[in-house]
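Cont'd.
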Amino acid sequence: MIVGEQKPIAEIKRMVAPYKKLLILGCGTCVSTCFAGGKDEVATLASALRLAFRAEGGEIEVEELTVERQCENEFIQEAAAGAARNSAVLSLACGAGVQAIARRFGRTPVLPGVNTSFIGVLERQGVFTEECIGCGNCELAVFGGICPITRCSKKLLNGPCGGSQGGKCEIDPETDCAWQLIIDRLRVLGQMDNLRTYIPPKDWRSSISGGPRKLVREDLIV
Amino acid sequence: MNPEPQSGLQRVLSEGGFAVTAECGPPRGGNAEVIRDKGRWLKGCVDAVNVTDNQTAIVRMSSIAACVHLQQMGLEPVMQMVTRDRNRIALQSDIMGAYSLGIRNILCLSGDHQTFGSQPDAMNVFDIDSINLLRAVQTMRDEGRDMSGYELDGPPRMFIGAVANPFADPLDYHVIRLAKKIEAGADFIQTQCVYNLERFKEWMRLAREEGLTDRVHILAGVTPLRSLRMTQHMASKVAGMDVPDSVRKRMAGAPRGKVAEEGTRICLETIAELRQIEGVHGVHIMAIGGEEKVSEIVEAAGLTPGPAVA
């Protein structure tokens, strides 16, 4: 999923201050799963904002709404009336959702309430880890299912650097060395020979280096 | 490997000499005198001098420029190049430029992560890794082509080096990694500082068993310890370093005022042992912050720079 984190309330307050009527728009998919921008977070943030402005003698009218996905027009449509009624939309979706909303409601200021962190997994309650940078050309098969491009701090393709010690990364003793994980896993799988194979430089064109990406599925276009 | 050596270091090694290299860090600024001072200390006592590339991710004078300053003084530089700061376009371009300036040795590394450095807010590059860089330099030299396959007008004929850490875990894997670096183009290897001789010997034994020592020149790294503080720092703070208790005890047990002397003694003993190990073709003396001491160590160790055959 896309993992995100709600922005600090002080920053949100500064951002929404110029507007008297605000729609806080949640997203029911990824950011809901990671407790950053789902229905519950919308409600909590709405109360916090109302209280904060009231405490300072200010006033803000806050409307709450959560749609299933802010990255799909079908669901975005549900927010049209709310967006029209308010002077701004605070979207709690990932960056893609915020932009999709801004694109759809061209005359309404759309503000981001969440910092999009990464594509990751829920490691355990409250802990999320990055697992994929979306490079556009998955090579997990050679690496025993562990991505060195995402999880090695130096994106090394041909083995660990000299800073790997005790299974940890040199940049942070809390971070696993991706290459240690890869070596351990290949050992278990009996695929240590993969480590002898030279991995050529990555073709980054399928990643962000090729400019904004677009996926066209002719078979699905109607 | 280069058919006709253009590198003095290559000549020394190919003629069976025991090579001595040292290290020189460029200054944090444009003052070339800093480099020249270090050059004066090292001149005549080493076969080549490694010039670091923004070591520990601290912004410094470029390795290429500092190499040229040393070269003008008659020293032979080994240009270190990390993949942290430049993409493949800039790396290849700088290798061609360095060659055009007379630089004949390169050491390929990935580089310390920028979060350790003076500007941790920088974006890193890591477009390719150190092994990809080795292969790129080898292809430029041996096939005369750049990474795209384009034929070069004046291929850079570099003597190619890589680093190895015999103390990193797991040991068996790091021998595989050494093989991979040789396969990708490494002609010589400079290792992490050796304090744990037993572990180093074990690594060398595995390398010999794989036939690797016949295919590459291994220069063992040494760093004389100068103080208890430095010993402590090397033992606990430097990534990939292995300082055994026996060394720490010797340093701690040295009489007041004689600690640095003890460090030098340990270094000399280490060099003497390294010279006995089959497959070790030289030492790389990293006298961190003590370049002026290198000549003393070289002399006391009885090492003489230059080819074995006079």
